[in-house]
Write a structure and sequence with these properties.
With 171 residues, this protein is mainly beta. It is built from no helices and 13 strands. The strands form two sheets. Strands 1, 3, 8, 9, 10, 12 and 13 form a seven-stranded antiparallel beta sheet that branches. Strands 2-11-4-5-6-7 form a six-stranded antiparallel beta sheet, with no helix packed on it. The chain is globular.
């Protein structure tokens, strides 16, 4: 799956490309990130796996969790309470390779974001968070890419996307 996107996830004027599926209940989604190129060297430029209860919500009202890669490191991002700021952080510098996998887990109102450099055998930099209030049973999960800048684009290539161990496609 090749995706091109522009804009920022965190801003009030957010813009990003997102392919998704609706799922119900707890889940584990993994995806191989084959490549990611961006012109913007910032943590606001990201490609990864995104979950949200409402993808139509914008800015500070968009609850979400993201396991992704920024321009130079692996990255997680979340907004656990509507109306609050997005929180995120980079892990240590990314080591490029052919076996980069991202993982996002939902368990009730909690999430875990992590990445793997060995083809999904072991996952590192696990970030956990709990959403305030109860999440709905149905969530949107999928792949996203943005560039950190509305005037530039970024491109990500994903493959081997699985939800609860079952291959997933997007149409």
């Amino acid at each position: 799956i090749t995706m091109t996107g522009r804009g920022k996830l965190e801003s009030e004027a957010q813009a990003f490309s997102y392919v998704y599926r609706e799922v119900e209940g707890d889940f584990v989604i993994t995806a191989k990130l084959n490549s990611y190129t961006t012109a913007k060297s910032t943590n606001q430029s990201q490609a990864g796996i995104l979950m949200t209860p409402d993808f139509a919500a914008t800015g500070s009202n968009m609850l979400h969790a993201l396991s992704g890669k920024g321009s130079s490191a692996f990255y997680y991002s979340h907004r656990l309470t509507a109306g609050k700021s997005t929180r995120g952080n980079q892990s240590s510098a990314a080591t490029e390779g052919d076996n980069v996998y991202l993982k996002l887990v939902r368990s009730a109102d909690e999430y875990q974001a992590s990445y793997s450099l060995d083809g999904g055998v072991t996952y590192s930099a696990i970030k956990k968070g709990t959403f305030s209030g109860s999440l709905p049973s149905k969530m949107y999960i999928g792949l996203m890419v943005n560039s950190g800048d509305n005037s530039a684009t970024a491109t990500a290539v994903f493959s081997d996307v699985k939800v609860n161990g079952v291959s997933m496609t997007f149409s």
